[in-house]
Design a protein that fits this description.
260 residues, Rossmann fold, Hypothetical Protein, Haloacid Dehalogenase-like Hydrolase, Chain: A, domain 2, 2 domains, 23% strand, HAD-like_sf, HAD-SF_hydro_IIB, Cof subfamily protein (Haloacid dehalogenase superfamily), Cof
């Protein structure tokens, strides 16, 4: 079999609804690697939020911050930080709305609020320890920021979309949206990844379950939406597998012929 590139989203795709890695998914990844395929993560998470999973699955290549930061075998090959002037505009506008921001750099994340229950609830839903988030409203001034978390309700989204048209907003939680550079996506990260590794789009298999996976699923030659994905995401994919909690990864890999 020709070597393939398999990209996995993490939350709701590799990790189940309890943020656990199903045994069948772990075994499937091991089988892919033993067959000589390249396996990587394509996630909205920061590198410091996937260290345990990287060790468990022995994966040392990843696309983080929804495509803005790409590392292959411990070498950073692509970075796309958000423009500082745009961050200053976002910061000023969110302050007038009393909405918290969390700035995400390559090594740390910092918040504009000392504590906020929405930040606590959203990040603990990902099993992220919020005690490591310090307050620093001007963190973006001297640190490259690849993604920002904006805390606002769904009915308040248009305020930001209308006032900050050079930024991309993607909802990932009832309380929060990812803020990215315009044009930034997991698809762009994959493009940089396969340029470096010499794969074609048709050799790419992508698995995802949420709105931030749509561009990736549309870009990959072979795309698989999880059974737990919203309809909008399923429509963007070539295949739909079972729910993540029903061995959806192993089933999907069998569907596309990568596992027997």
């Amino acid at each position: 079999m020709t070597k393939k590139m398999i990209m996995f989203d993490i939350d709701g795709t590799l990790l189940d609804h309890d943020k656990k890695l199903p045994a069948s998914a772990k075994e499937a990844v091991k089988s892919l690697k033993e067959a000589g395929h390249e396996v990587a993560f394509a996630t909205g998470r920061a590198p410091y939020f996937i260290e345990d999973l990287r060790k468990e699955l022995e994966i040392d290549s990843f696309i983080c911050f929804n495509g803005q930061y790409v590392e292959i075998e411990n070498e950073v090959i692509y970075k796309n930080p958000i423009d500082r002037e745009l961050l200053a505009h976002l910061s000023g506008f969110s302050t007038t709305q009393n909405h918290p921001l969390v700035y995400m750099g390559a090594e740390f994340m910092r918040s504009t609020f000392d504590y906020h229950s929405d930040i606590e609830e959203s990040l603990t839903s990902l099993n992220i320890d919020t005690t490591q988030i310090e307050m620093d409203a001007s963190y973006y001034n001297d640190t490259e920021i690849y993604q920002t978390l904006l805390y606002c309700k769904e009915h308040e989204e248009t305020l930001y979309r209308d006032n900050l048209r050079k930024l991309n907003f993607i909802r990932w939680h009832e309380y929060s949206m990812d803020v990215l550079p315009l044009g930034g996506s997991k698809a762009k990260g994959i493009e940089k990844f396969i340029e470096k590794k010499g794969f074609s789009k048709d050799q790419v298999y992508a698995f995802g379950d949420n709105l931030n996976d749509i561009e990736m699923l549309q870009y990959a030659g072979h795309s698989v939406a999880m059974g737990n994905a919203p309809e909008e995401v399923k429509k963007a994919a070539r295949y739909v597998t079972k729910d993540v909690g029903e061995d959806g990864i192993a089933y999907g890999l069998q569907m596309v012929g990568l596992l027997s």
